Amino acid sequence: VGAANALxxxxxxxxEAIQTTQLFSTEERRGIEDNHDAMSRFVKLEFDGxxxxxxxxxxxxxxxxxFLGEADKSMGGGDYERALKFYAKALEAAPASHDAWxxxxxxxxxxxxxxxxxxxxxxxxxxxxxAPDLLAAKAIVLARLGDHExxxxxxxxxIESGADRAYPWIARGDALLALDEKQADxxxxxxxxxxxxxxxxxxxxxxxxxxxxxxxxxxxxAQEALxxxxxxxxxxxQAGHCQQALGLADLAASSFERARELNPTCDEARAALSELxxxxxxxxxxxxxRRLFSR
Length: 295
Known about the structure:
Order of helices and strands: HHHHHHHHHHHHHHHHH
Distance between the termini: 39 Å
Helix content: over 70%
Low-confidence stretches: 1-58
């Protein structure tokens, strides 16, 4: 059963994708580009009717790989905006690039820009079809927007077509965690088993636990990610945020400093260190006690 049949709502899956593909008119796109607002990175990526010049296949493939490499590097550096720009460039080079479409969705989710992430995923499905990782990303977006029934329907479809992939299982864990279901841990474990040698998935699970304020579990997976690759700014940032939430201010400061060493232009590390400095010892203790007794 595909995603379209899995949904119980009146709106069909494919209809929604088609509507999103047609979301922006030519006039609206021109206005958005002129104003350089947040949506400008999307509206430039309209590929209907494009043809590729003879002899350009190898160049396009090389460009796609290069831009994807830069985008993934930016994700690892905690610079999601830069990642979005390079995923967009990859799509300009290769409009059917699965990794670029999924990467865009993940970067928007990490920015907690769920509405635009949903729009982008629908657009991607309209272009390249119901890929398991796109369905998984849609499940995460819907879960975080509070549409739990639809989130589970998309999650079912993602696992049905991609049970051997990490992301559908991790997305299932996210959707279950939104409902405070204990089975979420099992799903995260299944996903991590699919690709056990990649720091990215440990980091992503940590990010999900932290989003739902499960900071001890988030810290555990951040440590696993660091054990796999301690050279990623994003992982040190994640560890620092978990430590800060757990009242471990000194360790958090060390983690943020390490993140800044790895990426000197990281605004998030700089802001986190500034916040720790402003908060002071008394504020840290209050934050720790408030989190302790609220759980």
